[in-house]
């Protein structure tokens, strides 16, 4: 996590040459992520060698390994894409340069957040990611970014207040220690509630998603790809740590429906809103609201399953598949909109002939997001569905199937517009890195469907239900 | 112990006032200030609850210091964004005015 910070400083210093830094950065980070995926299961690192009540523990468990690897893939591909096609408004070259330090800040914050078990350190990384995300969103619309910033600030403060209460109650902020001492008393419940509310704002779960579509739809395509793929996921991972690692004794089965219920509503609401959108990027942004809903819908399923490993792996696979597919989709949408006559879905006509590769990438990403086999999205959804039916949660199962159908409706609407006859596109389609990046990401999301069992095992490393310290909820 | 509770309660009141102001005020600069009041309240809670009977615990203090650093950075960032937005609005207003975009009085 220090490496991207170093790259950020270098990018700040290098100015115009900063864009080329992605060339060494992408393979270096991918290599580090791979190394992280292969280190022994019980590896842990104490920053500065302070002992636990005070020190900060970095621990690569299955969640962190998957997330760090997916982050490296997404940011690497998005970075290479942006290298070929810098995100800038016409006549504002300075803006393109700010993009590079920001993605490294996002990268560092996200990696630190995925790895740490220290709740206060998580607060700091949350702010790092929010700061980078707001600045990235500001490249598109300053107003939407400011709205996002204000709401994100309230969210972080709610989270911080929760941390403050925990410090007052237990005198530690480490997840692994909290799991041993946590009591279901009023202060803990209050703290958990505050932190959850704050994080739900960051993760844009319905009904706190209001800031997401305007900010994500207005930002330039590489920026929205990062926002949708990574910034939203950090809140989700922290919630996982809170509910399943720190407080399994506190968070009962009924409390988990507080997350699952809005998750199910988010699936329906986000899908319906996506169907109603006229602009392509707004459609993709609302699809993020729906997909985040699936992640939270999985919370009660994991807790209620007799053998949680299936639901747990489904949740993680879905998160990773969404990261890859959604980043691919935003990149492809950005390319399509550049070539199309306007930003409405009806303007996409004729694109399938003129830029087949990009439309293919969009289609492949859509396949994974809809959950059609064979894809990472299908494996994730299938595992979740399996768990839901096994424990008789037919309401959640129905919502998942309905959500998949609705997703098919809104993505096919966009795709069929591409195949419709239309005016000749403004710009000739170009090949090269900018076309390849979304295609590779979407392809990976599909290939995940074949590597399911390996990822299944990876996600299980040091999962809370397997750890001896934390009893299975 | 009692003095610690006084600080924590004051912090809770401050946080509540700040949140109320954030919801009722519409101007973004005022909202930013309101958020800072909430932050100050939370730091007071953090410090107050961590205050021991005889000695002060350094751990919450370290957290408060880190939190203040983060809050300062975010406030500066938010203020800069508000200024940019105001400038952009003035520019569009000036461009659409009939007198050719001279800065107003």
Structural description of this entry:
The complex is a heterodimer of chains A (about 475) and B (about 100). Chain A has helices spanning about 1-15, 20-40, 60-85, 95-115, 120-140, 140-170, 175-180, 185-205, 210-220, 220-245, 255-275, 280-305, 310-340, 350-355, 355-370, 375-390, 395-420, 435-445, 450-460, and strands at about 45, 55-60. With about 475 residues, chain A is mainly alpha-helical. In chain A, strand 1 (about 45) and strand 2 form a beta hairpin. In chain A, helix 6 (about 140-170) packs across helix 9 (about 210-220) and helix 7 (about 175-180) runs parallel beside helix 10. Chain A is globular and about 65 Å long. Residues about 465-473 of chain A have low confidence and may be disordered. Chain B has about 100 residues and is mainly α. Chain B contains three helices and no strands. The radius of gyration of chain B is 20 Å and the shape is elongated. The mean pLDDT of chain B is about 80. Chains A and B meet through helix 5 and helix 6 of A and helix 1, helix 2 and helix 3 of B.
Cα radius of gyration of chain B in angstroms = 20 Å
Structural shape of chain B: elongated
Strand content of chain A: under 5%
- Tally the structural domains of chain A: 1
CATH-scheme architecture of chain B: Orthogonal Bundle
The first-to-last residue Cα distance of chain A is 31 Å
Number of helices of chain B: 3
């Amino acid at each position: 996590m220090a490496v991207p910070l170093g790259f950020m400083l270098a990018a700040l210093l290098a100015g115009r040459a900063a864009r080329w830094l992605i060339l060494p950065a992408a393979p270096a980070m991918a290599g580090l992520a791979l190394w992280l995926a292969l280190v022994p299961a019980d590896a842990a690192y104490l920053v500065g060698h302070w002992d636990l009540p005070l020190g900060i523990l970095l621990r690569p468990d299955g969640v962190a390994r998957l997330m760090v690897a997916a982050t490296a893939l997404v940011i690497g591909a998005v970075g290479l894409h942006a290298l070929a096609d810098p995100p800038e408004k016409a006549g504002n070259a300075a803006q393109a340069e700010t993009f590079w330090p920001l993605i490294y800040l996002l990268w560092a914050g996200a990696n630190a957040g995925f790895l740490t078990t220290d709740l206060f350190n998580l607060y700091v990384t949350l702010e790092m990611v929010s700061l980078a995300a707001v600045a990235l969103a500001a490249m598109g619309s300053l107003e939407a970014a400011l709205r996002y910033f204000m709401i994100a600030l309230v969210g972080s403060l709610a989270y911080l207040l929760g941390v403050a209460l925990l410090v007052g109650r237990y005198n530690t902020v480490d997840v692994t220690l909290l799991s041993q001492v946590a009591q279901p008393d009023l202060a803990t419940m209050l703290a958990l509630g505050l932190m959850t509310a704050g994080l739900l704002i960051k993760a844009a779960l319905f009904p706190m998603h209001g800031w997401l579509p305007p900010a994500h739809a207005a930002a330039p395509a590489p920026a929205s790809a990062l926002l949708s793929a990574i910034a939203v996921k950090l809140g989700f991972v922290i919630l996982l740590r809170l509910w399943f690692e720190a407080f399994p004794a506190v968070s009962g089965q009924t409390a988990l429906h507080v997350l699952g219920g809005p998750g199910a509503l988010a699936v329906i609401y986000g899908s319906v809103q996506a169907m109603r959108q006229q602009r392509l990027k707004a459609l993709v942004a609302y699809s993020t609201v729906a997909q985040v809903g699936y992640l939270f819908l999985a919370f009660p399923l994991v807790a209620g399953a007799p053998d949680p490993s299936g639901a747990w792996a489904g949740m993680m696979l879905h998160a990773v598949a969404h990261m890859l597919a959604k980043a691919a989709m935003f990149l492809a949408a950005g390319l399509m909109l550049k070539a199309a006559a306007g930003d409405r879905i009806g303007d996409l006509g004729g694109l399938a002939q003129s830029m087949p590769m990009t439309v293919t990438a969009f289609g492949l990403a859509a396949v994974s997001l809809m959950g059609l086999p064979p894809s990472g999205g299908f494996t994730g959804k299938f595992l979740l569905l399996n768990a839901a039916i096994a424990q008789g949660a037919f309401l959640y199962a129905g919502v998942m199937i309905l959500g998949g159908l609705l997703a098919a409706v809104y993505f096919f609407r966009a795709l069929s517009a591409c195949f419709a006859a239309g005016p000749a596109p403004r710009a000739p389609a170009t090949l090269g890195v900018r076309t390849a990046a979304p295609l590779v990401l979407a392809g990976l999301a599909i290939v995940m469907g074949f590597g399911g069992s390996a990822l299944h095992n990876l996600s299980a490393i040091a999962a809370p239900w397997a750890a001896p310290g934390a009893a299975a909820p | 112990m009692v003095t610690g509770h006084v600080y924590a309660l004051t912090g809770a009141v401050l946080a509540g006032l700040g949140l109320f102001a954030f919801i009722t005020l519409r101007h973004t600069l005022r909202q930013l200030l309101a958020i800072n009041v909430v932050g100050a309240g939370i730091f007071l809670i953090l410090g107050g609850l961590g205050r021991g009977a005889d000695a002060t615990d350094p751990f919450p203090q370290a957290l408060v210091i880190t939190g203040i650093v983060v809050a300062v950075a975010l406030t500066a960032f938010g203020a800069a964004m508000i200024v940019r937005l105001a400038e952009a609005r003035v520019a569009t207003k000036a461009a659409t005015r009939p007198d050719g975009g001279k800065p107003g009085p």
